[in-house]
Amino acid sequence: MDVLSRPADEFENDQSVEALWAMKAYEHAEIYFNILCSVDPKILRLTPQDDLIYKLFREEFPDLKIDIIIESELKSTKEKAKWRPFCERFKNIVEDYNYGTLLRSDASSDYSEENTMLVTKIQFFAVEIARNREGINDCLRVKFMPEPIKDPKAEDS
């Protein structure tokens, strides 16, 4: 997967790179959701910078509803103008801060085609840290049971 860390301008819509990215993003989403369903989200730490991310997120977006996020609102021209400087603050703090990451639109539901949007990694962290700290993800442990991670070696036998 070293190809995923290469500069984007080296590729021209290479379908194999897109497929690798999609697999990595889905795997991250699946693991994160299983963790959410297994532990108390309020004690979950996503990064060593959770406190800073949460503080700056709520300072910049104090009224953003995070239980259900409307993708068109999050990605409007006005909101993009607010998110861009927020994200850039983490350029040298959060590794791969601008990588594409999958975020659930409705916090009370699992990842699905209808309930998933593409955001930057720092947006994912900001929203999910807030959801965890504000108790929005608490319902998941009751509603969903974690799925065991599939061992690719077991499928080969």
Key descriptive features of the protein:
157 residues, mainly alpha, yst0336 like fold, two-stranded antiparallel sheet, 7 helices, 6% strand
Topology readout:
Elements: H1 15-38, H2 50-60, H3 71-74, H4 77-88, E1 100-104, E2 116-120, H5 121-133, H6 140-143, H7 152-156
Antiparallel strand pairs: 1-2
Organism: Sitophilus oryzae
Protein name: Protein PBDC1-like
Pfam family, one: PBDC1
Please provide a written account of the structure.
By secondary structure, this protein is mainly α. It has one domain (2-145): yst0336 like fold (Orthogonal Bundle). It is 46% helix and 6% strand. The protein has helices at residues 15-38, 50-60, 71-74, 77-88, 121-133, 140-143, 152-156; strands at 100-104, 116-120. It has a two-stranded antiparallel sheet. Helix 2 (50-60) crosses helix 5 (121-133). Residues 17-139 form the Polysaccharide biosynthesis domain. One of its GO terms (cellular component) is cytoplasm.
